[in-house]
Amino acid sequence: MTQGAGQEPVVRTATLRDFRVPPYAQSPAPPASPQPGSAFPEGYTPTARDLPVISVDKPAQVQPVPEPRPAANPGLGPLYVVGDVHGYLDELLAALAEQGLIDAEGRWAAGNARLWFLGDFTDRGPDGIGVIDLVMRLSAEAAAAGGYCKALMGNHELLLIGAKRFGDTPVNSGAGTATFQAAWLLNGGQKTDMERLQDVHLQWMSRLDAVVEEDEHLLMHSDTTAYLDYGSTIEDVNDTVHAILTRNDADECWDLFRKLTKRFAFRDDSGAEAVQELMAAYGGRRVVHGHSPIPYLTGEVGSEDGEDGAGPQVDGPHVYADGLAIAMDGGVTMAGKLLVVQLPLHD
Fold first, then answer.
1. CA–CA separation, 297 vs 254, rounded Å?
2. DSSP 8-state assignment for residue 314
3. Cβ partners under 8 Å of residue 326, min gap 6
4. d(Cα 125, Cα 85) in Å, to the nearest integer?
5. How far is Cα 73 from Cα 77, in angstroms, rounded to an integer?
6. Are 128 and 87 in contact (CB under 8 A)?
7. What does the alpha-carbon distance between residue 324 and residue 303 come to, in Å, rounded to a whole number?
8. CA nearest 240: which of 164, 135, 153?
9. Measured between alpha carbons, how far is 124 from 106 in angstroms, rounded to an integer?
10. Has residue 35 been placed in a domain?
11. Coil, helix or strand at residue 129
């Protein structure tokens, strides 16, 4: 999600791990070691939690659990989805292990299971590049085991790509001029991520699809109908997004980022109608998305001054819009919960 000022940050243990797939690494990533006496590495900027800006405890212990539940179709493994990660590598490892998707060493352990990340790997948290490296490695390991691990394009992937490519180049924001660099910093961009960002990461992010349908679930990052601006089929949308990134025009990339940063299209009385409009074009019987934290969708944001000493209570995905939409951003950047769940939900 894209955000700005909010609650005071909750201190988390920074993790800077190298989960790259060795054959694809172009050059060693420089180590980012914490400063003496600091809970965070040099260049990591703890950010306020966690109010959206649209101007465009301790880490859980990793505990293996029993094997994943069998899929209804014996030819396919069970389907899992992951909400927004935003650089919280420890929380991601714990959530994947809890579902039996990785072992105690962080290796793929789910055989032919299918795993989809819904986007937003970086910004806010301490180790966005470590998260990307992990997902890239799990993709190779899952494929070797007969399953797969795939990812969708989030608005923060577009933001990081834009900050790297265009920096302080002015773009037409529709409300004057703006820059990708300023927007990236405003929305939790981390110096350590930019320093460790390599061509292999940029190439991987720029090739991610924006929309996919799996088992009658329409998966996308943002809760917006703006995807319809880019095509009337899933293939058209993904081809258009890839073409925009290939053309490398700053204004065009900014417009894509701006549109995919829109949110809350499914929240109000007309939400079910908006979901049905998307499914009429792209298929599926339910939309599954990240981007907008569940506490904002439910109105349970928690206290900004932190007097209650607790973050928002998120126990699992949020089903809404007459049961047609599933929200998966558990608000990890707000000290909420990083969600990894198996589909279909049994609600």
1. 26
2. -
3. 217, 286, 287, 288, 289, 317, 318, 319, 345
4. 8
5. 8
6. yes
7. 30
8. 153
9. 23
10. no
11. helix
- The answer to the question of residue 177 being in a domain is yes
Q: 71: how many CB neighbours lie within 10 A of its CB?
A: 16
For position 215, which CATH number holds?
Answer: 3.60.21.10
Contacts of residue 115, defined as CB under 8 A and 6 or more positions apart, other chains included, come to 80, 81, 82, 101, 138, 142, 147, 148, 149, 150
Instruction: Identify the residue whose tokens are 């899929």.
Output: 71
Write the pLDDT tens digit of every residue in 150-196: 999 999 999 999 999 999 999 988 777 899 999 999 999 999 999 99
DSSP class of 226? G
Q: Is residue 115 part of a domain?
A: yes
What is the token pair recorded at 15?
Answer: 């993790």
77 DSSP 8-state letter: P
Q: How do strand 217-220 and strand 340-343 relate by DSSP bridges?
A: unpaired
Which three-class secondary structure state does DSSP give residue 178? strand
How many distinct structural domains can be found in the chain?
1
Least Cα distance to 202 among 81, 84, 26, 56 occurs for 26
Is residue 98 scored above 70 in pLDDT?
yes
* Separation CA 276–CA 266 (nearest Å): 10
pLDDT digit string, tens, across residues 195-250: 999 999 999 999 999 999 999 999 999 999 999 999 999 999 999 999 999 999 99
Query: How far is Cα of residue 242 from the mean position of the Cα atoms in its chain?
Result: 18
Are 174 and 248 a contacting pair, CB within 8 Å? no
> Whose CA is closest to 223, among 318, 320, 157, 288?
288
- Tokens 């019987």 sit at which residue? 285
Residues in the chain: 347
Per the structure, the complete domain to which residue 277 belongs is given by: 63-343
CB neighbour list of residue 197: distance below 8 Å, 6 or more residues apart: 129, 160, 164
Q: Which among 288, 236, 275, 272 is positioned nearest to 79, based on CA atoms?
A: 288
Token code pair at residue 200: 């292999």
- Alpha-helix residue ranges (DSSP H) falling in the chain: 89-98, 128-144, 155-166, 180-186, 191-196, 199-206, 234-247, 250-259, 271-282, 294-298
In a domain, 201, yes or no: yes
